[in-house]
């Protein structure tokens, strides 16, 4: 397993530092001055100067890298660019070269050919790729779950049917675009228990509430269900949340939609139960971690 960040550290940075060190020496800077500008030791500068550091020819010969090195060397030598400004310029260049299909992305895919298994159109470095989007959702969800697991007292907020913390992709259309905990979150002998890692398409009920709220204009990408308690509603309202009631005895999606249309700013939905239906509160938020923090604030 090799991450693109390893290629940046092991190949890109040594190559660019070597090029910059050489360019600065050509502009009359001493080894000591080059070391100060680049934030490295004089011995490192000496190694760069004598070719003792392995560099990557594909990076060194890239026109954009060459142009950046020339511009930064001129600016650093003349004092028109500070080392911090140069650092920022290089950071921007790295992000550009990590973009789907670009130089660092190509080097990464060459180093990890298994990435090809995701299809010819897939780019792990494309911030809008389905895989990266899904992984960001799952990462946020795992963070939120850790918050709940470590929140002393969360178990008293778990309803009899169990809780589920869910989060969806930006363009979520159905439950398959919503990730949650298979089997829900339960109280087992006073311990918050998450039975398995979050997955997409495993939550139907809380996912339905979240999707219905989004379809009717709610700016939410995550949600959780907790036990119903008027005092909890009051506490959420005190924290700035707008609450709205819906009826879960009929069509849940339609009822949630109507509630959002009546209270467009609602971030807390609730129903007070019915025949065979446990009363519940649903807290909505921009991401799973934010929702979990809201719940922790209630404890």
UniProtKB/TrEMBL annotation:
Gene Ontology molecular function: DNA binding
Record-linked InterPro entries: Aldolase_II/adducin_N_sf, Cro/C1-type_HTH, Lambda_DNA-bd_dom_sf, ThiN
PANTHER family (alphabetical): HTH CRO_C1-TYPE DOMAIN-CONTAINING PROTEIN (PTHR40730:SF5), TRANSCRIPTIONAL REGULATOR PROTEIN-LIKE PROTEIN (PTHR40730)
Name of protein: HTH cro/C1-type domain-containing protein
Native source species: Natronorubrum thiooxidans
Domain HTH cro/C1-type as annotated: residue spans: 20-48
Pfam families with a match to the protein in the record: HTH_3 (PF01381), ThiN (PF10120)
Gene3D superfamilies with a match to the protein in the record: Class II aldolase/adducin N-terminal domain, lambda repressor-like DNA-binding domains
Lineage: Archaea, Methanobacteriati, Methanobacteriota, Stenosarchaea group, Halobacteria
